[in-house]
Amino acid sequence: MTVMKTSMRNFFAHKGRMALSAIAVLLSVAFVCGTLVFTDTMSTTFDKLFAATSSDVTVSPKDASDTGETQADNGKPPVMRASVLDTVRKAKGVKAAEGAVFSTSVTVVDADKDSLSPNGGGPTIVGNWTANDARTMKVTSGTPPKGPDQVMVDADTVDKHHLKLGDEIAVITAVGTHTAKVSGVAAFEVTNPGAAIFYLDTKTAQQTLVGETGVYTNVNVTAAEGVSDAQLKTDVSAALGAGQFKVQTAKETADANRADVGEFMDVLKYAMLGFAGIAFLVGIFLIINTFSMLVAQRTREIGLMRAIGSSRKQVNRSVLVEAFLLGVVGSVLGVGAGVGIAVGLMKLMSSAGMNLSTDDLTVAWTTPVIGLVLGVVVTVLAAYLPARRAGKVSPMAALRDAGTPADGKAGLVRGAIGLLLTGGGVFALYLAGSADKGGEGALWLGLGIVLSLLGFVVVGPLLAGGVVRVLGVVLLRAFGPVGRMAERNALRNPRRTGATGAALMIGLALVACLSVVSSSMVASATQELDKTVGTDFIVGSDAGQLVIPQAVKAIKETPGIERVTEYKWLEADYTTPDGKTLKNTDITAADPSYATDVRKETVAGDIKDAYRIDSMSVHEDFAKEHRVTLGSKIAVKFKEGSTAHLTVRAITRSDDVIDSGAKYMSIATLAKYVPADKMPLDSMLFATAQKGQQDAVYQALKSSLHDYPQYKVRDQTDYKQALKDQIGQLLNLIYGLLALAIIVAVLGVVNTLALSVVERTREIGLMRAIGLSRRQLRRMIRMESVVIALFGALLGLGLGMGWGATAQQLLALQGLGVLEIPWPTIIGVFIGSAFVGLFAALVPAFRAGRMNVLNAIATD
């Protein structure tokens, strides 16, 4: 009970000093809980949607996907004849059945040819209006479609694009373009996670999406009274014939959709939790520093406690109880803040096109438990070392305000361990950079990053002395005595300076590493484009949509075009010379001019020969793995056609950046074995202008594709910029997540300075008494903060560039052989760290300047 009273008294006596540590715990716990609440809410939203939209039993073509997606290589959804509907209606246990036809391989535009597709990655769905849709959609204005010139649109799309009844829109598919006027608006009765839905009447939907009537993509079946979904599935399957169609219960359909979405949500959740873990790691340094300084300031008090009978365990326990209280307070507040973060993320996603309603906000009981346990455990563990040191101080040494005799020895041991870890990390990074295989190198890289990071953390106090002195010479000496005092203050406690700088080091190391890797990827890809691509323009969809025949025709008819190369990607089953059968293996079909448009380096044969009839190429790794040589025959079974026995005429390098690992054949060969109506659409096209007409053709191509806004025309400059922008957007997202760790690190600098000012109260009073002005005092503290921040920045940026350079060596195995250090970014981050130091010192410096001189001198 005495220990608890003492801990409570100390906790509330130093509540101001504990506040920043509590904020660090709060932020870290909030990010973890916010991530869990956000992803759980997304799961709830999709679960409700899938449950509401799934009929009791769904019948679909045998080759349809389990999730209901209707993407097909030829741009048309897989369908069944209308006779299937009649058969299902006669099956035992069926109350009702209706045919549905829908597709996601569509583009919908308004009268100005602006796309009406969601900008957040959600699907665009066009289908017929059915009773199953009426379960989840309510017509709020107008009427459902009653003829070929009418279309009903979901309310979210209407609001987002300011549509109104009577507006004309166009549905663009592989079959053609169909125009209709908005006849009605239907609102979701469950949360719409971001889809845009357009309803046509049944015959119009069939003709627009498939090109013929009397077909359906699926049949929705409702069970009769007392018939379970499982029994209904059995009865319907028996009526249709076993294995003829895909028959799924509502639960099976919902589970398939849930699993498909779950993969994305798992990646999102664990990525965000990873960044929260980094913030927790940074917070550990803050908590260690806080308790180390609080213990140091209470040395005499601890000595008195020991002198009157307190044991080491009691002193140790007293500090740990304070940490426990800090963890509880920070974690409880963090759980509440986490819910707020989740709501903020939902609003952010809604603005990006994925609608998430707070009505579905899901806070599982495990979320606050995880937040509390994680926050308290991390805080107590971080306080253990300071608590242990407090318990080791002898009563007489504490009463003298002396340190422990073992401090010097402990420093030597710490330095030796740090150097050993750093050396091991450097060696692991060397092995990663010299690895011949990416998988092996990645393992060494991961080990090297962990060991080198731990090594720098442990050896930080040793490095602090040298680095701070160099920074002092470069930056502080110009400020005279004030600069020298700032340098001495930073050097006074190397362990504290090292721990504070290490907190900032972690976040900046990751920033530097990712900057080096991304810059190297862009530089490598740019170099490869310059070396490999011999065409003027690349036409394709950023959303991965296939190029429909109308767009291909428009491109080929553009004035000034010398040639257009079609490029198709599909999957087939291979039987290789080693007797193996490879299911769903990729193959690329292109026009022979592709050999000129994209120059592929071969290790055997001539790539142009691969475009002869009944010929193909493979890449080097594939050839080695399956004992393929020039002249070898590979049986290729096309899913929508017959089997071809293709002769290998060329073997390409496997480490190319462009079309890495591709296997080529000609479109003429593909057409020989796949019927014309089953031929896959083009994935992209390559266009070359007549000599001297590049600029004119560039504008002409854009005009030709005005009616097809889903496709972009890019010259090589555009393509390089698009690649740079894509990587830049990903980096900005990562930097945003890393900002949490950097904010916690800044709090660490603030806390260290604030406690340092308290620790030096008497000294500050004496300096003021002998003539140091308030302005000089504040400048001294600001410069001390800048030096600590720059110390952490130097370590972090140096370490990160080492990691990035090693990672680039692994990327070189995949053809990305250019190492580029983004010096503007590195220098900008370094300068920014100085401003971080200045910002962190504002409050401590202000408080130090307001001290009463006489009271400060009288402080014991």
Count of individual domains = 4
Biggest sheet architecture: 10 strands, mixed
Shape category = globular
Give the mean pLDDT. Answer: 85
User: What is the number of strand segments?
Assistant: 24
- How far apart are the termini? 29 Å
User: Approximately how much helix is present in the residues?
Assistant: 55-70%
Helix/strand class: alpha+beta
User: Uncertain spans, ≥5 residues at pLDDT below 50?
Assistant: 402-406
The total of helices stands at 27
User: What value does the Rg take, in angstroms?
Assistant: 34 Å
Percent of residues in beta strands? Answer: 15-25%
Element layout with pairings:
Elements: H1 2-13, H2 15-53, E1 57-60, E2 80-81, H3 83-89, E3 94-100, E4 102-103, E5 107-110, E6 124-128, H4 131-134, E7 137-142, E8 150-154, H5 155-161, E9 168-172, E10 177-188, E11 196-200, H6 202-209, E12 215-216, E13 218-223, H7 229-240, E14 246-249, H8 250-297, H9 299-307, H10 312-351, H11 366-392, H12 395-399, H13 407-433, H14 438-476, H15 481-492, H16 494-532, E15 537-540, H17 549-556, E16 561-575, E17 581-590, H18 594-597, E18 602-605, E19 615-619, H19 620-625, E20 633-638, E21 643-652, E22 664-666, H20 667-673, E23 684-689, H21 694-704, E24 712-715, H22 716-759, H23 761-769, H24 774-812, H25 823-840, H26 842-849, H27 853-858
Parallel strand pairs: 6-11, 8-10, 17-22, 19-21
Antiparallel strand pairs: 1-13, 1-14, 2-12, 3-13, 4-6, 5-9, 7-10, 8-11, 9-10, 15-23, 15-24, 16-17, 16-20, 16-23, 18-21, 20-21
Helix pairs in contact: 1-10, 2-8, 2-10, 2-11, 2-22, 8-11, 8-16, 8-22, 10-11, 13-14, 13-24, 14-15, 14-16, 14-24, 15-24, 16-22, 16-24, 22-26, 24-25, 24-26
